[in-house]
């Protein structure tokens, strides 16, 4: 399969669009955790109950929107890994019982996970900073489901969830931010503790327990109880807007005080990506971040901004093995990663 065809099939359609502040905010995500009132929490479900509930939820969701149902039982471990790398399912769902499932929209901007930690996890994704719009989209699906099946809800506690940290709104709002300026100026070390004190949490690209790669940070709310969904999103937006200003300021400072060093860093990384024959995950992520910074600051003019979003996904282990058509050992993945990046950048230059 040609790389161009593979990209068209592999990369989610919503990723090709640009949203507000997309030079710094890569994406916005809203996730709602819900449980059906008539069923026990997923941990205590029998196989028959889990399958029955999957059918019921799928029927309700598909009556509202055309979405494809994928059961974890029907997917290979590699296929599940690819879905995790695309942020369409959680690692927990991929590793859970075979009775887990996911409903995916055609653009893959909506996924409804079934039988994960909770009965339902509604997830909506958007490019750039679009938290309010993404919340509206998630709420519409939430309302459509609740019209047909009652959720586990308490007047004082709100929506009831398997984990107490999700009780209340059941909302996790998050943004993926590219913050190379704050990293290079070493301001990020004092900013993260300040963000944590505001009831928000800073994580790596794949959420809880994941490593920060390529200067990409996921910032999300920690509290779900005691505030409305709108207030949670407003609080997060307030912090994100401040981070955008600080990142812009850091980039301007680097260009005014260390322009030649910044330009050298950008083009050294570009040289590695266009000529390297073996590239590990961390090195690829860092070089892609440098090149994206070069695009945003105007040093590189012939490559699209979306290249970072795309290649950060395509160079993950699952995608590399899917493109190769089979399992690869770590060194083989590093060789494949380098070749894929070279080929993709050459395609971009030819365009």
From TrEMBL:
Binding of ATP, residues: 27-31, 87, 121, 172-176, 203-208
Keywords: Allosteric enzyme, ATP-binding, Kinase, Nucleotide-binding, Transferase
Domain Phosphagen kinase C-terminal: from-to ranges: 24-250
Ranges spanned by the short sequence motif RDXXRA motif of the pArg binding pocket involved in allosteric regulation, renumbered to the chain: 333-338
Entry-linked PANTHER family: ARGININE KINASE 1-RELATED, ARGININE OR CREATINE KINASE
HAMAP family to which the protein is assigned, alphabetical: Prot_Arg_kinase (MF_00602)
Family (UniProt): Belongs to the ATP:guanido phosphotransferase family.
Record protein name field: Protein-arginine kinase
Organism: Bacillus kandeliae
Source taxonomy: Bacteria, Bacillati, Bacillota, Bacilli, Bacillales
